[in-house]
Fold each of these.
Amino acid sequence: MNKNGDENTAPPPYNNINKPLSTDKKKIRIKLPKNKIKKQNNKINNINTNNTNMCISNTINDNPIIKFTEKINCSKALKVAKLSNSELKDLFWNKDEINKAYNEKWSWTTYLTSIRRFLKIIVSKNGKIENTYKYGKYNYDGRLYVNGFGVQSLQNKIRNYICNDYYNELDISNCHPSLLVYLCEENNIYCDTFKNYVLNRKNLLEKHNLDKFDILKALNTDINYKKKNNDFYNLLIGELDFIKKSLKEKIELPKTDNKKNPLSSSVNKLLLRHEGLIIQEIIKKLGEKNIGFPLFDSVYFDKNISVDINEINELEFIKKYKYIKFDIKDTIEAIKDFELPEDFDEKKKIINM
């Protein structure tokens, strides 16, 4: 559970990292107990019978792809591993980056220990490691999180630096706001202001001196406070409050033990269900062997394969969601192949390895 009391977080990422995840070399898939699948599907399908448009059924994927072989550049990983703690922090640490697995900022001390342990393990395996992913605590659907610590667990700078040679990123643009508008329209819920934001995000954020995190924070908070002299934001948070309450009236939202923001947490779980289904469809479309790993609302895929973004966005399953669009991001190295400090001793041992 994170400090906000949200149970929909990743499993603890720092435990048992030296233990093998599996001895089975075949593709591993989660097999859910039939009684739990039936129970969960019954909850999902318990909707207002007057609403014939609600496309919420079948959001449980009882056979998801959850095992991936992650690859990194060993030469680059060794360079990172040989840096001192202060050098590593100066080059790769972003104190403002949010850990999406926990929706909170990273702890440098814990993160540093995990990085060094992970680099030691993956370098010892010649730059390849098989990792198993699983749903968040108490969940049988939604977003996948690495079991232990993997490339998914790294901050953007270091992840793209050591993975750039192998992967590009296929990312859902503005994922949760886009899904929310889709669900509103399927349930006849007024959402004109929020829809305007989804369709014109860049211009509206610039015009009203906001960033996307202001909107995502409002989406995940039950009680939002107005901003002085910002009519657009104030109108949007009022509409968000109406949307969340309307969804609760029209369908049975997923359960949550988040006591601070219970309604927003339940809506978030609903959005994650759909996000998870979309990501699984993309993994199947590109082929399991071409996927490095899932990264929440995106996947890292083999940059040697050709991916037509127009074809992806025209898939019937994607078009169903109407506002969902994918973008391809070249994992351009956050910093170019850097030079080690002049006084660096190539013969010195890798710190903490």
Amino acid sequence: MAVQSMGLPRNRRDDSLSATRVRTRRQHLPRYLELHPAVRYLLAVALVCAISLLYLMQTSQVASQSYRLRAFEAQRNAVVRDNNRLQLQIAELKSRTRIQQIARNKLGMVPLGKNVIYVLVDDRATNTSAEAPPQMVGASSDAPAQP
């Protein structure tokens, strides 16, 4: 064998010995592979335990992912609820009656009557303080007067 590893030519005697060894080994192979029944039993138990452990690990992961999914769904539902509440609040704040009430009560505005007087202010008059007073144009019209 040492001769073969060095790359030197092998002789016929070594070939015949190795062939008989291989033949003998093949004949006794079933005996080498035979296991004691206790060892077979222990291997079977170990295999069942390994498969059970893998199953439990997968079940555990599925359960934890399910809990995470439920938490995310609850969070999403809370955000949707807040969004709906805010949209309702926006609609209430934009309501015409509310805006009119604030204009009357807080800002002191009054509704536009039929007798409307429009005052035209000249740009030059606003730039100088003591020139002509603003001109008054038309009364009792619903539409603004055209200059």
Amino acid sequence: MTLKQIHVGKSVVSFALISISVVLCPGTSAQTPTMTPPACTPAANKIVFDGYPDEETAEEIFTMNGEGENIMRLTNNTVEDFNPEWSPDETRIAFVSNRDGNYEIYTMNTDGTGVLRLTTNNVPDGDPVWSSDGMKIAFISQRSGDNDIYTMNPDGSNLINITNNPSNDIYPAWSPDGTKFAFASNRDGNYEIYTMSSTGRYVTRLTSNSVDAFYNDLSWSPNDRIIAFRGKHEDIYRVNIDGTGFTNITNTKLDTGGFIWLSDNDHIVFVTTVEGLVSIRIDGTDRSPLDIPLPDRFSSFDASIKQLCGFI
């Protein structure tokens, strides 16, 4: 898998080279498995992604429809623009850019206008994630000397260090109700999965492994009962929020990318460099490729799918 690596102090924070955020509504080409998504906004049935335009060396951000057509370029710079994330109401896109000399977090309208810089400091900030109500953005930064998880308002105000721990706390994932985080941390030696309240209290360790698996791309099930994530060999795993049920779902050692839960709480959709978008039951059965074609020049990618009709 190809990753963008940003070195933060002694650690390495990796961002997907090609990030894809999908919004689907009834009537799109994704017919398997059956899902019942909530009401979608006019921005629905769009995919936001980043990639390298032809003969260019800097990543840019694009949108296209659910059929892989009507590609629209949102950014046009000689620097890196990547890691796009739809806001829950699908009116803004958060992303990372070094357009001002350092990796910072920005937002923009869905047509690329109205760019707003949210962070300003001399260390990289990355991995922005919207809360389900759109009132907060969580991200990682080493401005305190190590990788911590911060939250801020969508305009960059009210910055709070949530973890404030002398370790690497990374890959924050909001719970569906916005009251908790799942995250990865090496605070106990190896990288493990933890949960905590949205204010950083009541930290609970969910996994315990003898080797450093470096988990990433954490995502809660819509019913708040299971956390899925990528782990060793980039396979997708799951664990219940009480720490039980640790299972390798994909178990293929293929180049899998990001994923999203479907609203039935029983399937996820993920990305591979071979099959594109694939759905699979959370127990590892019922694997089925989805008919959502992507542009040829983006046929080899690592994807980070963060939204499907309002579910993060």
